[in-house]
Design brief:
alpha/beta; 3-stranded parallel beta sheet; Rossmann fold; 12 strands
């Protein structure tokens, strides 16, 4: 059987690292198996879905290099969903409910206060024709629930192993809203059946939903897919990321200078038994990908670790990969290869590059302490006399200064570095000096 997976984002917002986790795991799983990866836009929520978000989703995936083999939109499949709903009604598995949201909330509060789980009581199944007519005369529109078999559903999960959910403790899920709009639960099952989805990899917050969907598969005459539920992301302190996801959108990370391969290298192994290391290509990420190496413990996402990894990725990035970006930043083509070889080991993001180019061109503020002013002036005068500078200049000048002043070590080199770069750290000065244009 051909492995076929899907990534099914809802275009009601921007993609963030939480969305990327299932997208990437599905993509790697599929590419490793030589299968088909489907991008399915779950846009049944017409009020909140926007075309701008659809475009952003595509742009983010293209930036990451996560190409898809097939593209689908749920908004174009309403006829199919209506057919499925009619099939469930005919079999007695889809029933109309007339409670308002206020009434349902009161029921849940009463159940909780009574020490009972807030499970829907199926009161709608006991309504008489007269009661239904009275509700409709009031102008009430029904929402529709799927009638679960109150039994334990068991499956072998690709990450969690044997997993089961007792559906007697789960409310019958709403499949159709009062306004006639479809919810995700049934539409997803229809699509998975029709598109031949073999495996679904998603967050563990869907475990209960999976149990109800397995029953919907059966009710619609479909064969349930394989399921794997990965752990959710938490921050360094173990707290959920939900309140921080706005700053962790893929677009925001891209603007911060995080490289696509950095994000992929980090997310592809986060939460697994494999070390997180910089990868140079998608092929390296795909090779040896094994879903069974992922554990059930929450995966700790650290922006700081991501930035450090980004530096490692840049350190090994060939000049040809960044030449276009360097040109856009104003780096002169004649020195760009040497400049990149020198500064790439001293940056964490590409946004650090202009600052180092400013050092080369002299467009920065030197850092000279009062007590070092005379020493620095003497050193710069000697350097000026030694033009043009080459790989030997730095050693010759500092050697002479050491002999004449008695300075050595940090007391010799740091004042000169700060005067020539405005910083107390950076590339090897012997290699940097020949590039300086002061």
């Amino acid at each position: 059987m051909t492995v076929t997976t899907r990534f099914a984002p809802s275009p009601t917002g921007k993609l963030h690292v939480g969305n990327l986790r299932p997208a990437l795991l599905n993509w790697l799983f599929t590419r490793n198996a030589g299968g088909q990866f489907i991008l399915r836009i779950d846009d049944t929520d017409a009020e909140r879905s926007t075309e701008e978000n659809v475009d952003d989703i595509k742009r983010d995936l293209e930036w990451l290099g996560l190409g898809w083999d097939r593209y689908e939109r749920q908004s174009e499949r309403m006829e199919r969903y209506n057919e499925a709903a009619d099939q469930l009604r005919a079999s007695g598995r889809l029933y109309a409910c007339y409670e308002t949201s206020t009434e349902l909330n009161l029921k849940r509060k009463y159940q909780l206060q009574s020490g009972r789980p807030p499970v829907y009581d199926r009161a709608a199944l006991k309504l008489t024709d007269a009661e239904i007519a009275a509700f409709e005369a009031e102008g009430r529109k029904p929402h529709w629930r799927f009638k679960l078999e109150q039994e334990r559903v068991t499956w072998i999960d690709g990450i969690r192993g044997e997993t089961n959910v007792d559906c007697a403790s789960v409310s019958d899920p709403v499949l159709i809203r009062e306004d006639g709009g479809f919810l995700y639960t049934m539409c997803s099952v229809c699509d998975d059946i029709d598109f031949g989805i073999s495996d679904v990899i998603r967050g563990e917050d869907h475990v209960t939903n999976t149990a109800t969907q397995i029953q919907i598969f059966d009710a619609l005459g479909g064969r349930p897919t394989g399921f794997a539920h990965h752990s959710l992301l938490v921050d360094a302190d173990g707290a959920g990321l939900s309140k921080r996801l706005g700053s962790l959108t893929l677009g925001s990370l891209r603007e911060q200078g995080i490289e696509a391969l950095t994000l992929l290298s980090y997310m592809a192994r986060l939460g697994s038994s494999e070390p997180i290391e910089p990868r140079n290509s998608h092929a390296e990420l795909i090779e040896g990908f094994d879903l069974s190496r992922f554990g059930r413990a929450p995966a700790r996402f650290s922006p700081d670790e991501l930035t450090i990894l980004n530096g490692k990725v840049l350190h090994g990035m060939p000049f040809e990969t960044v030449s276009g970006q360097l040109e856009e930043m104003g780096v002169d083509a004649d020195v760009a290869p040497a400049f990149w070889a020198l500064v790439s080991a001293n940056i964490n993001t590409m946004s650090d590059v202009p600052g180092w180019w400013a050092v080369v061109t002299g467009d920065f503020t030197p850092d000279i302490a009062d007590e070092d002013a005379e020493f620095v002036a003497d050193a710069l005068a000697r350097m000026d006399a030694a033009k043009p500078w080459d790989a030997e200049t730095w050693g010759a000048i500092t050697g002479a200064l050491k002999a004449d002043t008695g300075r050595k070590g940090k007391g010799l080199f740091m004042p000169l570095r700060k005067a020539l770069t405005g910083r107390g750290y950076g590339p090897n000065m012997a290699e940097l000096v020949p590039l300086l244009r002061r």
